[in-house]
Structure formats: structure tokens, C-alpha cells
Amino acid sequence: MTKTILKSYSKINLFLNVGKKNIRSKLHNVQSLVCLINIYDTIVISRIRANRDIVKFSGKFSSYVHKKKNSVTKCLLLLRSKGIIKKNQNFKVTIQKNIPVFSGLGGGSSNSATLIKYFGSGRKFYEKDISSFSRNLGSDCRLFFGSKQIFQKNINKIINIKKKLNFYLVVVYPFLKSSTKEVYSKIKFSKNLKQKSFDGNRFQLKTIDDLKYEENFLERIVIGKFPVIQKILYQLETMRNCQFSRVTGSGSACFGLFLTKKSADLALIKIKKKFPKFWCVVGKTI
Predict the structure, then answer these.
(1) Is the pLDDT of residue 82 over 50?
(2) For the chain, which end, N or C, has fewer CB atoms within 10 Å of the first or last residue's CB respectively?
(3) What is the structure's pLDDT at 199?
(4) Which of 53, 140, 153, 262 is flagged as catalytic?
């Protein structure tokens, strides 16, 4: 039985601006600078002779995944309904969950996008296709159809960044389930999103200093629900050579950004001592 092994990478929102709701989609408009990082789930796929798919999760964070209602199961059903997977074909899909669940690192959306690109290999996915996937599987699914580093201009448009950003990130996950739906429901006002421009192939945020002046609009809501997040962010930012610290997505994972691996590794040692019960790792943009 032939097996295919895929890497499903996580993402970091270097900043996240949230605007007013889109009238048609009823989702908040967003702007974000998103990078994939080298922390990933492993997906193993094999064709089976059975009358249904078999989906299994393993790994440290597998217990957080609903066995029946999860992004992988929903994705397989959607692909079959669209004819991308034939109705008489069934598969065993095993996911090694290395990306924390409910963390803002995009694990579920990444799993879905990875499967879509695998089963749809050779197909050209148009905007209407990506919109359909995002509508049914989660808006973050769109983020994994571009390059490894993108600027999300708005809820429906992503722009690939060709000038590679090389950052190291100390990521801290405090094992707190942060529901994206719940966090967005607590937004009391929205900011007017400014039009951000590009200079050739370069994003306008050319220096790390520019990034420091950005923010994650959802951060204050996440801190309001989980006060320990404020302490994590403070400890990260006080680490030597940390450029800034921030919550990614709707949390609860936090990160401190560093320019060298040495600085990030040294910070990780200290952070682990500060928060021995939390999941703490060094990731790198890819």
C-alpha cells in the first residue's frame, strides 16, 4: 500500500489589523503580514479498500481535536462533493498533530489546504474555488494558497511577497483554548484599514522598526480573557535582542521575534524556565 507523506506548516501573523464587517460575507475585513514557519503537522495518506474514509490523529495535541467534526473530515467531504475525490475512492489519513490546537497558528486551516492541494494536484484553483474552500473550512484556509510569505490585503485578497523575510520566533503556547469565533464576537469597534502599498516586489514595511509600530488588533481581547498572556508577552519582549512580542491570530500562542538563531535559542532557554508548564519552541520563517 503506497503512502504519501505531506508537511502541513503553521503560520504566524506578524501583525493583524481588523476592520469592519463585509456586508456580503458578514466577516470582518482584515489585513495581515503572514509567514509560514517550520513547525508542521505530518499528514500520511494511503488509498484503502473500504466504504468510508478513516481519519486518525496522533501526537501531543491530538486529544484537542474532535474525532468526527474536524477540518480534515470536513475537507474530505467537501472535496468529494466537488468531484475532486471520486465517490468510490476512500483514504486513510493520519495526522501527527505537532501544531497546537486553538493557538492561532492555523493548524486546522493548514491541514485542509494541504489536502486540497494534494488531491487537486494539476488543477488550477481560481478565486471562486478558494473563496468556497475558505467559506466552508475557515477564512484562514486562504492564507495557505499563496507563497510561504504573503500580505493579506483584505479578507478576499492575498499578495505574494517575493522578498523573503528571515526571522526566528520563540513561540509560547500556554495550553489555553482561544476560540476564533468567540474572540471576534467580542469586537466592540473596528478600525478603518489604511491602504498599504508595495514598492515593486517589496512590502512597504521594509524594516523591523516599521513592524514594531504595527499590532495585533485582537490582542487586547485575548489578554482580557487570558491575563497570563500579558505576562508572557512582557517576558518575551524583555529577552535580549527580542525585536517585539505579539499574539498570533486570535491566540493563545504568543511569539517573540529575533533576527538570529543564537538569540532565539538563548531566549528559549530562559523562557522555558519562566514558563516550565507551557509549550515553548523556536520556529523560523520559511
Answers:
(1) yes
(2) N
(3) 46
(4) 140
